[in-house]
Design a protein that fits this description.
Elements: H1 48-73, H2 79-92, E1 99-103, E2 115-122, E3 125-133, E4 140-142
């Protein structure tokens, strides 16, 4: 009679016996060796330089955009100060009696030769004045009310 065989006598892969060298356990895909404690790295390359490079590029583009707006956008007149200055010129230089409600378009560029029109009430009558920028420092002249 034969004796009973134990599981270690004749190892059959996947049935509790010892695995032959290099064999994979049942259900495990072949060639999926992982680094301890994490997912496999792709060719040992990190994504960190790409992330830092992208963030750096965003910062540089933001700075360039701000500088371009500042440099090429140019200066604009302060609308409230300009309106107050026009009222003063009309009363002191042109001898207008009552000057009120001066309305000028906003965001007028400070550029020598640039002109624009403002609406003004002089002695309770609606008038218009032409404002011309005379230099790049924001100096302007006010024409006679029409």
């Amino acid at each position: 009679m034969g004796r009973a065989r134990s599981a270690t006598d004749a190892a059959v892969p996947g049935w509790g016996g010892q695995q032959p060298a290099g064999a994979q356990p049942w259900g495990a895909p072949a060639n999926t060796w992982q680094q301890p404690g994490g997912a496999p790295q792709q060719n040992g390359k990190s994504k960190l330089p790409w992330i830092l490079g992208g963030a750096g590029l965003v910062v540089v583009l933001a700075i360039v955009g701000i500088l371009a707006t500042t440099i090429f956008g140019g200066k604009v007149l302060d609308t409230e100060s300009t309106q107050a200055g026009i009222a003063k010129v009309l009363t002191e230089s042109y001898g207008a009696g009552q000057v009120g409600d001066v309305q000028c378009p906003s965001d007028q560029k400070v550029e020598a030769g640039h002109s624009f029109t403002c609406a003004v009430t002089v002695d309770d009558q609606f008038r218009e004045v032409t404002v011309t920028i005379t230099d790049d420092n924001g100096t302007y002249e006010v024409g006679r009310p029409n």
